[in-house]
């Protein structure tokens, strides 16, 4: 029996990080109180009145009425809890965080919005957390909630393994699968009502990062399997399947003590649901070889996501950012002429930090949208004033 226990321990030793004697159980309560006041000189989907998403710009003239609107919002306010608990197998870390920014069916509302629900023990983690395919450090020090449209930014339910931590980091994850489809010019066709998405395997993602005195560099990737089944018996065979994939290269480059450059280049097919603002993952295309039984087919849409931002520290009290981001697709030939294909996001700000954890400032954001093939484009400019107080209190157990 003793030999069995020893063998079991030796086998799992490389995967575990054991607790140190000085580690204590603790509870951290943290969050932020935030108010945004702004004026949008253009038009936006009313459900997204307090954020700047190029995909939510008008797809035809006066879709959302006239130009110009003022808004107040506190939906960016959030609350979180972190618990550290030493165990025989190592330090158990758990976190739970939410804000009140409604999305999905609750878009535009003040609603519970889960951000994190995650636990980690040693080199293993499970729950909803940042996907390894993204790099949260690419996000600039902006106050606009949604942020650069081309950034890979997705918190997903996952199981992750982190074999390397420290100066060199490596993470692998099995993530909750999912995808969205654009029916294009066939959106009103009854035949497509019987097409259902199916995901036979989890999304597989991974990252490798090197951390150095000059900043860090990271390469990440993702692979996903997307299947759709035609459940209607109408003589058409609209079943299909494809692979989605993506590669993400990102970095932070320090420029002394006063600034940092943040960059990202992400490209691939059918990975759009991991981007901050993008098209659908699957589009519909003509199928010349399909005959009358399969005249069109689904395909993974190629996409490019770019982020280039520079954070600058004027002094201990004043900071600024300036930068640009792009989300650009190559839509399928049967996409609707007014479908969203390309969006750009530009912003700059001046933020004042009079006290620790307190930020006040102004930010200017300009976005534009380009449609697929009807020649229409739209744009909007917003000036936003934000007031934010971050708080954190740590409780420890002797």
Would you mind describing this structure in some detail?
The protein has 398 residues and is an all-beta fold. The chain has a single domain, classed as Porin. Helix content is 3%, strand content 54%. It has one helix and 20 strands. A 16-stranded antiparallel β-barrel has the order 1-3-4-5-6-7-8-10-11-12-13-16-17-18-19-20. A hairpin with a 5-residue loop joins strand 19 and strand 20. The protein starts with a helix and ends with a strand.
What are its keywords?
mainly beta, Porin, 1 helix, 54% strand, globular
Describe, in short, the structure shown.
3% of the residues lie in helices and 54% in strands.
Give the SSE map.
Blueprint: H1 2-12, E1 26-40, E2 69-73, E3 78-87, E4 90-101, E5 110-121, E6 124-130, E7 155-164, E8 168-175, E9 195-198, E10 203-212, E11 215-230, E12 240-254, E13 259-269, E14 282-286, E15 296-300, E16 302-313, E17 318-329, E18 340-352, E19 358-371, E20 377-396
Antiparallel strand pairs: 1-2, 1-3, 1-20, 3-4, 4-5, 5-6, 6-7, 7-8, 8-10, 9-11, 10-11, 11-12, 12-13, 13-16, 14-15, 16-17, 17-18, 18-19, 19-20
CATH superfamily: Porin
The dominant shape is globular
> How many structural domains can be distinguished in the coordinates?
1
Mean pLDDT: 89
How much is the radius of gyration in Å? 23 Å
User: Tally of extended strands?
Assistant: 20
Biggest sheet strand line-up: 1-3-4-5-6-7-8-10-11-12-13-16-17-18-19-20
Provide the helix percentage: under 10%
Head-to-tail CA distance between termini? 36 Å
Low-confidence stretches: 8-21
What would you call the structural class? mainly beta
Give a quick account of the main beta sheet: strands, pairing sense, barrel closure. 16 strands, antiparallel, barrel
Fill in the CATH topology.
Porin
CATH class division: Mainly Beta
